[in-house]
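Lecture notes, continued. The same structure-token format from the folding unit now serves as the input rather than the output. Read the line below as a description of shape only.
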């Protein structure tokens, strides 16, 4: 089951804990670009709070009974006025706690988000994931996401 949380210190504490795990997960993939700046955690909490109770932003929590086991953040982004498609949906974060994976929780979060975007008549939803995150890549592919844009990095 998914739910839209209201801001509460409990929820923010849980989500912050997960965020640390998510950051640790990305760091373990070997990406130098995921190293955190001082104060990152407080900034992320502000970012998270900005997704609660807003019309163009989405914060979902997945519940296993009363227990929160995962979350998703999404938003509607304006595109440059030159495009026919004026808005694009973005799912910026999805996280499911390790013991609850491969039980359909991630899919339930994304399905609920897609419904939310559809209600807002947003016809395209975009995600970004580290190319080394094979778990994430397989997950998105299974849910019907296809590579549309390649971003490429080079160190100077
Ligand atoms: C990616 C993640 C959100 C998936 O959550 P989940 O609850 O395990 O996903 P689901 O159970 O809904 O999986 C749906 C389908 O995606 C695919 N999938 C999910 N995890 C997979 C994996 N590790 N390897 C291969 N395919 C996978 C499967 O087809 C799965 O269906 P199945 O279990 O019936 O075969 C979770 O593993 C996670 O939090 N990972 C760490 C953070 C992350 O990578 N976030 C996403 C990228 S930004």
């Amino acid at each position: 089951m998914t739910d839209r949380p209201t801001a509460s210190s409990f929820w923010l504490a849980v989500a912050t804990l997960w965020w640390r795990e998510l950051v640790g997960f990305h760091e373990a993939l070997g990406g130098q670009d995921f190293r955190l700046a001082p104060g990152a955690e407080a900034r992320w909490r502000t970012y998270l709070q900005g997704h609660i109770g807003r019309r163009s932003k989405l914060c979902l929590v997945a519940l296993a009974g009363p227990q929160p086991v995962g979350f998703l953040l999404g938003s509607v982004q304006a595109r440059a006025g030159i495009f026919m498609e004026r808005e694009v949906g973005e799912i910026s974060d999805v996280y499911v706690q390790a013991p609850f994976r491969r039980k359909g929780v991630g899919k339930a979060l994304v399905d609920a988000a897609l419904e939310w975007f559809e209600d807002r008549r947003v016809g395209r939803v975009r995600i970004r994931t580290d190319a080394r995150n094979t778990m994430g890549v397989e997950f998105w592919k299974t849910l019907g996401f296809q590579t549309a844009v390649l971003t490429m990095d080079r160190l100077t």
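Point for the exam: The chain has one domain: 5-142.
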